[in-house]
Design brief:
The structure holds 2 protein chains of 2 kinds. By secondary structure, chain A is an all-alpha fold. Chain A is 77% helix and 1% strand. A two-stranded antiparallel ribbon of chain A has the order 1-2. Chain B has one domain: Rossmann fold (3-Layer(aba) Sandwich), CATH 3.40.50. Chain B has 9 helices and 10 strands. In chain B, helix 3 crosses helix 4 and helix 3 runs parallel beside helix 5. Chains A and B meet through helix 7 and helix 8 of A and helix 2 and helix 3 of B.
Chain lengths: 311, 245
């Protein structure tokens, strides 16, 4: 109950901000922060709970973005349908990636997911209809009724996707599915011998994780009015999606949210005040600091403090 | 008495190495069965084939009248084959109680929607098993803080939480003190009295001989001897396999 109240509160805050604030830049930046909240939450379902490290975030994110762009170019379908199509396509890719876990564990799975990014990028560079290497210019339609600007509308839509993602991650974490995924992470063989259908669960986690990443990518072409392969399949998405849960904490659904808000807000500030190149350095430095000083992330630090306080 | 587990002509190769060659064993319901053999003789490979961690190359494994040798391991667990691991594999991020909740939620209390009531039922059952095994006071302890003997008990408790009809105990006593060995032995006797068939793989001869009604000795992937414990100890082939010619 408390979760839904806070989720509703956060979402209402986003709507109120969209109604009051005039400066569009806040929404431009806020949209990016929310995108990373979705990506980090989605990544954590597979990487944090099940322990399968996925470097392929850009493949799922990018496929979602392109699915939306191509659908829009072909049919001028409204945003909602673009998002559904994107989630479906990336979910399918996740299903395929899930089957890879049948043979690939640990580092080998991680390497295979990098290959996924390369394959996707090559595919879209060579697809003339989707704009090829030069990209695709897209004309934004008018914003839907209560919104006066398209960016504000996308900001609210992304806030909705973020709340939905966290709710899904929370459900998985607190249900028997989450317990099964944690068992897989601790010992896959012991999990299987305890009656956990490991392959089914991994494929499920991969598909859900992929679909959410795809949904995060769907509004991107409209956000930029443009899409092209190099920036869409950029590995920085993989690093952000992986660094946020590591910084925030991977054992609780709120960890990736904290990590993503912290990390990408700092990145946005650095991009504006220092330079666009510096923001990548921020991720690297923060990641090294946290891996060394707080391997369980910000949540781990708090938990330590609490249990020390009780003694 | 009809057999609960029928292993017929099971072979397993790893590349050019024959780990098991045409092994056939029948185990009756309620039996206490001992499986011995020197290191590398194929004991663990055999039970991996029975429990589903490995697929046998040839032969059949029939459990309770059903061919199971092509089923994934989790399906076999759901049908009533549970095992403990030689080197304990606890779910290290979970408490002792949660370790038992995994098989409870995936085997006995399975359901798409879990209500408070079913979860409470599963927890009660987990606590009952922990009391039986003597781990009740450790229920909330993280499983990575257990001692060696507690880990072995947890292995057995987790296997029991799957409500098995056949329990395979893979060297549950290796490396324990003699007091601890009798403690674990007592647990296995107790489980057997409730009707569970038990296959014990063990190097500690005293324990196997005391526990088993029937013993099979494997050497180099083949059965070299089968019979009552006393006969096994006296057998020349067994002595040669263990002590060398």
């Amino acid at each position: 109950m408390r979760f839904w109240v806070s989720a509703g509160l956060v979402f209402s805050l986003a709507v109120i901000a969209a109604a009051i604030l005039k400066n569009e830049y806040y929404f431009f930046a806020g949209y990016t922060v929310l995108t990373y909240v979705v990506l980090a939450t989605a990544w954590n379902i597979l990487g944090g709970y099940a322990g399968y490290v996925n470097f392929g975030t850009p493949a799922f994110f990018g496929l979602g973005a392109y699915a939306a762009a191509v659908l829009f170019k072909a049919t001028e379908a409204p945003l909602l349908f673009q998002i559904i199509a994107a989630a479906a396509m990336s979910g399918l890719l996740g299903f395929a990636a899930g089957l890879l876990t049948l043979r690939l564990r640990g580092i080998f799975f991680a390497i295979a997911t990098i290959a996924l990014v390369v394959i996707m990028e090559t595919l879209f560079i060579n697809w003339r209809y989707a704009g090829g290497a030069t990209g695709l210019q897209l004309l934004r339609p008018a914003p839907v009724a209560p919104f006066e600007s398209y960016i504000k509308m996308l900001f609210v839509v992304m806030a909705l996707i973020a709340v939905a993602s966290v709710a899904i991650a929370r459900y998985i974490e607190t249900s028997w599915i989450g317990r099964g995924l944690r068992a897989i992470r601790d010992s896959e063989e012991a999990a299987e011998c305890s009656g956990v259908p490991t392959l089914k669960l991994k494929v499920f986690a991969c598909s859900i994780s992929g679909a959410l990443m795809g949904a995060a990518g769907a509004p991107m072409p409209m956000y930029l009015s443009f899409i092209e392969p190099a920036s869409t399949f950029n590995l920085n998405y993989a690093i952000g999606a992986l660094a946020s849960p590591m910084i925030g904490g991977m054992t609780h659904y709120i960890g990736p949210v904290i990590g993503a808000i912290l990390l990408s807000t700092i990145q946005q500030v650095v991009t504006v005040t220092i330079s666009g190149e510096m923001n990548v350095l921020v991720v690297g430095v923060l990641l090294v600091v946290f891996v060394v000083a707080a391997p369980e992330g910000i949540l781990g630090l708090f938990r330590k403090k609490f249990s020390a306080g009780r003694k | 008495m009809s057999a609960l587990l029928k292993i017929r002509g099971v072979s397993k190769h790893f590349g050019g190495f024959a780990a098991l060659t045409e092994v056939s064993i029948e185990i009756a319901g309620g039996e206490r069965f001992g499986l011995i053999g020197p290191n590398g003789s194929g004991k663990t490979t055999l039970i991996n084939c029975v429990a589903g961690s490995l697929r046998n190359d040839a032969g059949s494994i029939v459990f309770d009248g059903e061919e199971v040798s092509r089923l994934p391991a989790y399906q076999r667990t759901r049908r009533g084959i549970a095992r403990s691991f030689q080197i304990p594999r606890p779910f290290a991020s979970m408490s002792v109680l949660e370790n038992l909740m995994v098989p409870l939620e995936y085997v006995a209390h399975r359901g798409l929607v879990v209500t408070r009531k079913t979860e409470a039922g599963a927890q009660d059952e987990a606590m009952a098993i922990l009391r039986d095994i003597g781990l009740a006071d450790k229920a909330a302890t993280p499983s990575n803080r257990l001692s060696q003997v507690e880990l072995r008990k947890l292995e057995l408790a987790r296997a029991m939480a799957a409500r098995p009809r056949l329990l395979i105990s893979d060297e549950a006593m290796a490396g324990l003190s003699s007091n601890e060995v009798s403690e674990v032995l007592e647990i296995l006797f107790k489980l057997n009295r409730t009707g569970i068939t038990i296959i014990m793989i063990e190097h500690i001869m005293q324990a196997v001989m005391k526990f088993s009604q029937r013993v099979v000795c494997l050497d180099a992937g083949q059965i070299i001897c089968e019979g009552a414990p006393a006969a096994i100890v006296a057998n020349v082939d067994v002595q040669r396999a263990y002590l060398g010619a």
